[in-house]
């Protein structure tokens, strides 16, 4: 158990190293190694761009590297919050402006008359200017981070960056559609794609280690989550079918379950213990099925949840303990490989038979020095005549002393 816990801890620390949760300022040597300027750094031949590129990257991508980076991080979080707040408030009725049309009609006596018709409401013009300012900052930030990134392929493939430039691109696409496709009948449906901008909240993972740990917890608990969804789907289908036929056994003029697909919604709401009350069984057999459905939902959800909670507690506790260590002592030691099987009759350097060819002077396979010069190989080789004679002489001397 101790060895298994040790291996699990090493794997956890390796995952935390990949998450890059360090909040301390990296050294110049680490930055040069990260950007591939290590040789030029040791030679002292760094160019102006090689010196500025790591600094620009640290300013915009590592919020805890310096005070200036913290200020830029605060500005970035401010624009993210303003953008999300503007996106939500512009849908409020008090924040919208009615679109009124003057329609002229012909009356019965032949004269013309007009009346005002409110067809729709539009967001206030102030929200448009706020979005322009926010997206100008997001565009500038993306371009600077892309130009100064150490690896542009990894930058493009990063999930957070994909959300970032898709959300920014959706703003410019929305402008083009409003300019050229506003006369279409279903133009309002195109505004649905602007919901991608709400995904900018995932950019806060660069500023919060807790969000990184939460996302990593879901990744590590993928099997438990898949098992949870499978059990829920299985229970939903079973209880939806049961309640559909249970409500039809007795006379029920107010039956809410006219089909099994409608029962799927009721089973989902019941198993997740939400219970909206829009659909309820009204017969005794249906109530019994509903009680079984609620109990099965509680057990199904309660069983995998502790595993997910324990994973989050494990990652969080390791992160807190790792943050208290000095930075030089945070590296993960390599896992020692298991020793090869010992060959019978093999002789080690210490003269102990059966220690194996990889045994070192300390007697542990793989931990001691394995390189030997030619002279040492000749001494320890079983084929050496001098070595065999020396062993025979030592054995005869020991036997004589014992006699």
UniProtKB/TrEMBL annotation:
It is a multi-pass membrane protein. Residues 70-320 form the Ion transport domain. The keyword Isomerase does not apply. GO terms for biological process: action potential; sleep. It is found in: Membrane. It comes from the Eukaryota. Residues 351-361 have a biased composition (Low complexity). The chain crosses the membrane at residues 68-89, 225-246, 258-277, 284-309. GO terms for cellular component: axon terminus; dendrite membrane; neuronal cell body membrane; postsynaptic membrane; presynaptic membrane; voltage-gated potassium channel complex. PANTHER family: POTASSIUM VOLTAGE-GATED CHANNEL PROTEIN SHAW, VOLTAGE-GATED POTASSIUM CHANNEL. This is Ion transport domain-containing protein. One of its GO terms (molecular function) is delayed rectifier potassium channel activity. Pfam families: Ion_trans.
């Amino acid at each position: 158990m101790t060895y298994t816990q040790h291996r699990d801890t090493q794997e956890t620390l390796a995952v935390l190293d990949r998450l890059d949760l360090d909040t301390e300022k990296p050294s110049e040597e680490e930055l040069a190694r990260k950007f591939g300027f290590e040789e030029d750094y040791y030679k002292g031949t760094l160019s102006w761009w090689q010196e500025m590129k790591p600094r620009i990257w640290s300013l915009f991508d590592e919020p805890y590297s310096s005070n200036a980076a913290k200020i830029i991080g605060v500005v970035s979080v401010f624009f993210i919050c303003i953008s999300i707040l503007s996106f939500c408030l512009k849908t409020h009725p008090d924040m919208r402006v009615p679109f009124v049309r003057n329609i002229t009609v012909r009356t019965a006596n032949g004269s013309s008359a007009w009346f005002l018709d409110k067809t729709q409401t539009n967001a206030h013009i102030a929200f448009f200017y706020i979005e322009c300012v926010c997206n100008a900052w997001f565009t500038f930030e993306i371009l600077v981070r892309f130009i100064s990134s150490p690896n542009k392929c990894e930058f493009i493939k990063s999930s957070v960056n994909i959300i970032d430039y898709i959300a920014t691109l959706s703003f410019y696409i929305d402008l083009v559609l409003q300019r050229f496709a506003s006369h279409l009948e279903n133009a309002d449906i195109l505004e649905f794609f602007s919901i991608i901008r709400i995904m900018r909240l995932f950019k806060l993972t660069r500023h919060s280690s807790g969000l990184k740990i939460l996302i990593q917890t879901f990744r590590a608990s993928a099997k438990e989550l898949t098992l949870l969804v499978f059990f829920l789907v299985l229970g939903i289908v079973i209880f939806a079918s049961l309640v559909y036929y249970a409500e039809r056994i007795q006379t029920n003029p107010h039956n809410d379950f006219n089909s099994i697909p409608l029962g799927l919604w009721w089973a989902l709401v019941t198993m997740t213990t939400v219970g909206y009350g829009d659909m309820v069984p009204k017969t005794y057999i249906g109530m019994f099925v509903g009680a079984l459905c609620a109990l099965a939902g509680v057990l199904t959800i309660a069983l995998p949840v502790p595993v997910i909670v324990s994973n989050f507690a494990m990652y969080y506790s390791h992160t807190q303990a790792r943050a208290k260590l000095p930075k030089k002592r945070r590296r993960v030691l390599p896992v020692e490989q298991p020793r090869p099987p010992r060959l019978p009759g093999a002789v080690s350097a210490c003269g102990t038979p059966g220690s194996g060819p990889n045994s070192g002077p300390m007697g542990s396979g793989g931990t001691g020095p394995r390189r030997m010069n030619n002279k040492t190989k000749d001494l320890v080789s079983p084929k050496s005549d001098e070595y065999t004679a020396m062993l025979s002489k030592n054995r005869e001397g020991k036997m004589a002393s014992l006699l």
